[in-house]
Design a protein that fits this description.
Strand 5 (about 65-70) and strand 6 form a beta hairpin. The chain contains 2 helices and 7 strands. It has one domain. Strands 4-3-2-7 form a 4-stranded mixed beta sheet. It is mainly beta. It is globular.
């Protein structure tokens, strides 16, 4: 039986529950705020810091570019949109303490 060629490039997008359209003035996440190794918030390119829930809310409103909203175990979280660059993936951003 011949193997089918699968396009795996779309798999990361399938894990996202919502992909907001960013506003013209949308910010980028520049650092993750972590407490005891867990993400509790985000620092944005305009210098603001938001807790996790406010970050998700702002992203849903188009205020943060480059992220989608995913769900794990019933909890929402932000996830980087694949763009071919590893540098701006949330997991590769610096971590800061609150």
């Amino acid at each position: 039986m011949p193997e089918k060629n699968l396009d795996l490039s779309s798999l990361p997008m399938l894990t996202l529950k919502h992909i907001p359209e960013p506003n013209a003035d949308a910010q980028q996440i520049t650092a993750l705020i972590k407490e005891r190794g867990r993400i509790t918030g985000y620092r944005l390119s305009d210098g603001r810091t938001l807790n996790k829930e406010d970050g998700i809310r702002l992203a849903r409103q188009g205020g943060i570019r480059g992220v989608g909203i995913a769900t794990r175990n019933g909890s929402e979280y932000l996830k980087s949109l694949p763009d071919g660059s590893e540098r701006n993936n949330l997991g590769n951003l610096p971590s800061v303490t609150p």
